[in-house]
Write a structure and sequence with these properties.
Elements (H helix, E strand, L loop, with lengths): L1 E2 L6 H8 L9 H8 L3 E5 L4 E3 L7 E7 L1 E6 L6 E7 L3 E2 L3 H4 L6 E4 L3 E7 H10 L1 H23 L6 H7 L3 H13 L2 H20 L10 H70 L18
Helix pairs in contact: 1-2, 7-9
Length: 298
């Protein structure tokens, strides 16, 4: 691992400006913040930090890729693979809590690191920038709360039905009836009666080759075709609404699952730390029962 002294660099400024946490900062704030970062190069397979370690730094990838994983051995799970321009470890800038996952360089990777102490120093020198960061965090927290509290699972078909006009309802009923067996049987019966009456000679209002019948059939087909197409277009719109609703439900479920996994990882990390602390306690410090003096008989 190679380390260089912190320097101001336009590339560092561009990387920091892409981080949502710093989106509200001015150009001068970004330039000042970039002087606090340092470049680090990790070889392929090098561990950036391990799960359970104390964290105090934000990392932004300049080039290469980093794998974020949880657990070890058979319980090892790859959570994400990050590439140039992406960042990780941002929560440690504020809470300094143990890392909830392990970050490993997939190949030779260059990153810039911003430590918590450097951010505190930057904030102390730039109180206005601190307020902008807090405002950005509050805005994102508000958006997250709104997303999590909003009920995204809804009956989109019922909502679409309520917004239909009278003409659209008639078109749907006509299309539904035109694609049913009763319509086929009814139309077949009409054709049989029509042709039978004219062939037998009871009433020759449309003799063979049944020109009037052909005109009626053509008229019915010409009117029925656009009505069916209107109904099919509305069905396509309903399918889009269903797909959008499924996406929102899956997105909310993904956010909730991610929050649960993060909380579980933090709990496991804290439990592991407690177990290590308990294992290092001296035996003499463990409370032992006070021995009861033997009874002396008089």
């Amino acid at each position: 691992m190679q380390m260089n002294m912190p320097v101001s660099d336009p590339q560092h400024e561009a990387l920091l400006a892409k981080i949502p946490l710093f989106e509200s900062l001015t150009k001068d704030d970004i330039v000042a913040l970039s002087t606090h970062v340092e470049e680090i190069v990790y070889e392929a397979g090098a561990v950036v930090f391990r799960q359970g370690e104390e964290g105090s730094s934000l990392f932004v990838i300049e080039d290469g890729s980093v794998e974020i994983s949880h657990g070890e051995g058979s319980g090892h799970i790859v959570l994400a693979t990050l590439f140039a321009g992406q960042y990780f470890g941002e929560l440690s800038l504020f809470d300094g809590a143990p890392r909830s996952a392990t970050a490993t360089a997939v190949k030779k990777t260059g990153v810039i690191r911003l430590d918590r102490d450097d951010l505190v120093d930057f904030v102390n020198r730039n109180p206005a920038a601190a307020l902008r960061i807090i405002a950005e965090m509050g805005d994102r927290l508000r958006q997250t709360n709104e997303l999590m509290s909003r009920q995204v699972a809804r009956n989109v078909l019922e909502e679409a039905e309520e917004s239909l006009t009278y003409g659209q309802r008639i078109a749907d009923k006509v299309a539904k009836f035109g694609g049913s067996w009763p319509f086929i049987f009814m139309f077949a019966a009409i054709m049989v009666v029509w042709t039978g009456v004219n062939v037998v000679g009871l009433e020759t209002f449309d003799p063979y080759p049944f020109i009037l019948l052909n005109l009626v059939l053509s008229t019915v087909a010409a009117l029925q075709a656009p009505i069916i197409m209107m109904s099919q277009n509305r069905q396509s719109a309903k399918d889009k609404l269903l797909a959008e609703n499924d996406y929102l439900v899956n997105r909310k479920a993904e956010l909730e699952i991610t929050a649960l996994l993060r909380g579980q990882a933090e709990l496991l990390a804290r439990l592991a730390l407690l177990e290590r602390d308990a294992g290092r306690r001296p035996v003499d410090s463990i409370d032992r029962p006070t021995p009861v003096p033997p009874h002396v008989s008089e």
